[in-house]
Amino acid sequence: MVDIIEGYETEEQQVDAIKQWWKDNGNTLVIGAVVGLAGLWGWRFYNDSVVEGQEKASQAYSDMLVQFEAQGADADTTNVQAFIDGNSSSNYAVLASLLLAKEAVAKQDFELAKTQLTQLQDQNKYAPLNPLINLRLARVEVELGEYAQALTTLTMITEEGFIAKAEQVKGTVYLKQGDTNNARVAFQSAIDASNGRIDPILQLQFDDLALAAQNEATEPVLDVN
């Protein structure tokens, strides 16, 4: 199911695609997964209860999101956290946790963002979201100066649609560590994986490194004799 997000260039477009996919197919998936149990404990009862639960979670998420977005720049995340706590078994709690982590980053509360994303690593059962969670977690770890951990987190990202972004973050980590050689290799790998849709910031990062290397190579050696 990774293909439902690979056609979208930004992470927000990917999240929106997943939300729409859940809306269109969520109930069908749940029903299909339990069809083999129908003869054991009553298909109709189970079907009705599952669909009702999914619909309630969907409506609750929509209500929470509308209320949150209406608050604008002064948005309070209390209701978001309350939704997560009250719907921990729902896929919509995962989307709410991503929203809470995003708001924490916007407020530069990177510890809170890391807490949310680390919990998501353990709790998320929807595989197509894993690379998105790991990518955002790695970026937060970079902000916290946890460079070695960020590199470890990035090794978890193997999905083709996320390789370019993962390599770009890896290059940033190496750059912050003063390792320009590995940074250049990582940025080149990111460009190669971009399939022609190169992030302008990535191109600028790579060009700056290339220019610095060129200047260093042509810099005259001072005669100290």
UniProtKB/TrEMBL annotation:
Q: Which Gene3D superfamilies match?
A: Tetratricopeptide repeat domain
Check the UniProt entry and state the signal peptide residues, or none.
Answer: none
InterPro entries, alphabetized:
SecYEG/CpoB_TPR (IPR018704), TPR-like_helical_dom_sf (IPR011990), YfgM (IPR026039)
Q: Which UniProt keywords apply?
A: Cell membrane, Chaperone, Membrane, Transmembrane, Transmembrane helix
**Pfam families of this UniProt entry?**
TPR_21
The entry assigns this protein to a family as follows: Belongs to the YfgM family.
Q: What is this protein called?
A: Ancillary SecYEG translocon subunit
| Protein source organism | Psychromonas marina
